[in-house]
Specification:
This protein has 214 residues and is mainly α. 56% of the residues lie in helices and 0% in strands. It has 2 domains: 84 residues, Helix-hairpin-Helix base-excision DNA repair enzymes (C-terminal) (Endonuclease Iii, domain 2); 100 residues, Orthogonal Bundle (Endonuclease III, domain 1). The N and C termini lie close together (9 Å). The C terminus is likely disordered.
Length: 214
Amino acid sequence: MKKKDLALQIIERLKEAYPDAGCSLEYNEAWKLLVSVRLAAQCTDARVNVVVEKLYEKFPDAQALADAPEEEVEKIVRPCGLGKSKARDICACMRMLRDEYGGRVPDTFEELLKLPGVGRKSANLIMGDVFGQPAIVTDTHCIRLVNRMGLVDGVKEPKKVEMALWKIIPPEEGSDFCHRLVYHGRAVCTARTKPDCSECCLNDICAKKGVTEK
């Protein structure tokens, strides 16, 4: 089976299995997703959702975070790990939004990458979830699953996985596809335990054997 054909089958089956899949980071403003996605590095989304509630109690808007002492932010976000660097990036990012973008989150991939603490994964998440643009978010679930499924072949570097998926995933499907991979990676195709292949909706097509490049 060709990779594009396999990708389309996987997309359709995951749609059936997880019809309402979306971002598990809770936010109601674009700048809050920027904060959460930085905190989510090496931390669970569930913990981030708890920590940001306390963060926004003290610093309720982007302006307040831009003006906040980094030490105060660090105390609050420390449970997410890497507190010092995350606090530094969050404060610097909010200052850049204030000083260079009039308080708005930029809506181009290139501008997002200029923000402190924002890499390709975060920029893709913002583009897809906030602005509804084509996006492929190569988090750990995505990288693990697309390798197991045979959509990529032993590729672990996030950017290389992203570039490979752009070639076979329809642009309008990329963002939701990646969200569904997260759901599937947590529920079935897990990392720390043996994948529950007997319960997997992809168990008859999830194989590298016979998959071609085009």
